[in-house]
Amino acid sequence: MAVAVSKVRFSDPQIEMAHGAGGKASRRLVEGLIAPLLLSSPGDLLGDAAHVQIDGVRVAITTDSFVVKPLRFPGGSIGELAVNGTVNDLAVSGAKPEAIVATFVIEAGLPIEVLDAEVRAMAEAARRAGVRIVGGDTKVVEHGKADQIYISTTGIGRSMPNVHVDPRAVKSGDKILISGPIGDHGITILLARGELDIEADLRSDTRSVLPMVEALAHAAGSGIHWMRDPTRGGVATSLNELAHDCRLGITIDESSVPVGDAVRGACELLGLDPLHIANEGQFLAVIAAEQADAALKALQSVPGAEDAAIIGEIREQPAGALLASTKYGATRIVDMLVGDPLPRIC
Amino acid sequence: MKYVDEFRDPELIRKTTQEIRRLVDPQRQYRLMEVCGGHTHAIYRFGLKDILPENIDLIHGPGCPVCVLPMGRIDDGLSIAKSNDVIFAAFGDMMRVPGAHGSPLECKARGMDVRIVYSPADALKMAKANPTRHVVFFAIGFETTAPSTALVIMRAKQEGVRNFSVFCNHVTIIPAIRAILDSPDMRIDGFIGPGHVSTVIGCRPYEWIARNERKPIVVSGFEPLDLLQSIVMLLRQLQKNEYRVENQYQRVVPWEGNRGALKAMAEVFQVRPYFEWRGMGFISQSALRIRDAYAEWDAEVRFSVEGLRVTDPKAAQCGEVLKGVLKPHQCKLFGTECTPEHPIGALMVSSEGSCAAYHNYEHRKLVALS
Amino acid sequence: MCLAIPGKILEASTTENDATALVEVAGVRRRVDLGLLEDRPRPGDWVLIHVGFAMSKISEQDAIDQMRTLAMLGEAEAAMTEVRGYGSGDETSAEPPQGSK
Prior knowledge:
The complex is a heterotrimer of chains A (346), B (370) and C (101). Chain A is an alpha+beta fold and 346 residues long. Helices cover 30% and strands 25% of the residues of chain A. In chain A, helix 2 (78-92) packs parallel to helix 3 (112-129) and helix 5 crosses helix 8 (289-300). Chain B has a domain at 71-172 and 257-302: HypD, alpha/beta domain 2 (Rossmann fold, 3-Layer(aba) Sandwich), CATH 3.40.50. In chain B, a hairpin with a 3-residue loop joins strand 11 (274-277) and strand 12 (281-284). In chain B, helix 1 runs parallel beside helix 11, helix 2 (37-45) runs parallel beside helix 15 and helix 7 (146-158) packs across helix 12 (259-268). Chain B has 370 residues and is of the alpha/beta class.
């Protein structure tokens, strides 16, 4: 029961920022224009990485590009994001990352110290993640044609034998786990831009989630039906995509979703919802109900994942939608955003 | 979070809804209007409709300053920013509102210098930091926000900052409530009054609603317990056929309002004889313009704007939804031509617009469960 | 029009012309303008913040009073039920007397 991706029609006259924000507009662009033309089997569901068979060996491959302002922020920089992002995409698709190649598109005039710092950051991130960077490419464009530097990474990995994630494996009753508190990265970036004059003791959560995925695989293996790292668009977007792909409903309990104080404070102040904010060091997993508790324990025992929690479950209804419930018996639909979440005053 | 979490306590919410159920007359239909868009947003965000009895109907009022702004005003504001020397600064709420030639964000994508600010004070700071450019601040909001704009304009004058001006679209709440009550197809039993506007104007301006229209009005806070308690207070009045102004939001709202804020507004603004409200037509004395003494900081004086009226597509029923005559999903365009992704009216763009709130938080519940 | 959040004043700086304060909301800090408040708040006070301006001082006492009122909801009614149950002659009360909670 593959969901036909090409049924989506894309008729926007020009590309807008919203198309890159990871929400509805991005999805429409990919499903409506790019995938139908590029993919050899456009009816396939789009995951974080693609698995291909090469001479009987199942290999995962993924690519991602990193555009962030400012380049350096509390907790990390574009270089780290570039390595961890691709490592994580491979990990949550059920693959052990083996090698990465990187492309740099650099704006003429960029001081060498900036480039040096990012390359060092990538080397360190790769070392920590246990992945090799084996090659890459460099291009320089005129001043003004790139925001200082864009980095793109492509990674390959070996599919984990006992992990096979697929939205079609998701069943009613399955539990949803998150590896830790949400929103740290997106809010850190928002504050680091300095336009809002807000300060907080907050750092990006960028890191490799591979050790956590491996612990989960060890504890629950075939009980893991789906995983995703909720980057741009946040948990709300990832779960909406899942609900859409598996044609089931998802209900999360708002009070069980871990959110740090500073993220919460910034979101209340700016009128943002933590569920829509990007994360760079967390992942969601959908686990068969009977294995969920053991899976959670295994996850919580990994350093850095102590705050992992079960946040909800899969249900039959409302099919295709994500609901958040409160402790006093009310629910609300949590939709994907169209573009980036914007601060509001109303 | 202090002063927030206590007012979201699940046990107390359960208790308060029990009291509401105890108070309602099962034979009666109650139509309560929350005037303020922020209340509309809170009602959906906290799922309050799920826990209220069926015979309480919450009608969404026109208190969404983004929703009531006619498209022509957005075009005028953006036309000022077309020149390369101008920086267009506005709250995030405005960024996706469609003008006839695109929303501010779309204009930004095409190269216009459009920036989001959290505070009008930040727009003034931006002007000081960019002395060779002119910053136009697109001011919106009811009386909650107008005093801050006023203070910033006063500072701009005091400090002699010449490269800064304000395109003023501040509107006032009382004429909007009056327009609702004057509407022939309206039946409201009581009002949930705008809590944050009232921190500025106080509770006295609502006394005519109780006295002349004989409707109860309770000025309410924005947390679930605030709204639920306000409904309790309204029901108690309705039960006894009373009509008074009450202040539920006492921890924040002073009965006499905020004198400093009112002074700042009076110093900088005067009331426009009339102003067009999207979907509601021209309402007299319902908006503010900058006084002549501050003309140099008035973008409408510094720049020439076309002032074209842009009418909404005939099929869009924004006005009726704004006045609470129609529910969002009853508009013919809701969910089909008009969605958050491609909004036709501002009620679908603004996060506190009833159409957006309904679409994002509620609509798919009905569709999926049906 | 309505997004306003309570924050605690950490430190205030007043000059001739304007007053700002460093305010904290759950671990997040921002300078907030006190220019609209004739009665200047002090460190430790809580204020309601909207678009970077303090709109009102929050009354701790009123908040406590409100919580108390809410907590008592339904208890007056429960007390009445108890009273009725002690044979006051009200035929509609079918409940036997309840012990006090």
